[in-house]
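Exam revision sheet. Question 4 asks you to relate a sequence to its structure. Input first:
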Amino acid sequence: MLFRFVFGAVENKKHLLSLYNAINNTEYSNIDDIEINTLSDIIYIRMKNDVSFILDSDMNLYEHQSTFNPNMPLRGMMCFSTLYSQFLSVNRKNIYGKTLVKIPTPRYIVFYNGDDIFPDKIELKLSDAFERPDSSGHFEWTATMLNINKGHNPDILGKCQALSQYSDFVAKVKENYQTMPIEEAV
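Answer key, structure tokens:
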């Protein structure tokens, strides 16, 4: 919930833009260019995500995980399906016509700060979940997992102060939790 507040709240768009710039090596400066479209857990959607937004023809989905989850590509594909349905509806796009409908490019990032040891960056692939292995490459959906634990991804953490502070806060809570109840650790 903290990740969603820091990066997904409308009043914190500056942090979201900083994070986007850090990940993509860009220098966007206008927070009004961000269109936040985060899914809420409402009855007819039955799905939620941490933060999603459109910027510069990219549909970005940012998820935070404190435990490793190899199902993130599947979860991401399902979220993007809902996000694209909303995008098509809001923009009155007809996918049943003869004209190719252009959609924002999907960008899916998972920020990991759990206790398992992972490199700075790994690509999780939907095809790893296929019951029958398929190396044809005809269909693939990926999630880029970035390790934001202390000592990992210093370039990204160095470019985004809010992410660096978030990472430091979580590390301190985990350290405190070793010797005290979670309420006191926080």
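Marking note for examiners. The first strand starts at residue 35 and ends at 36.
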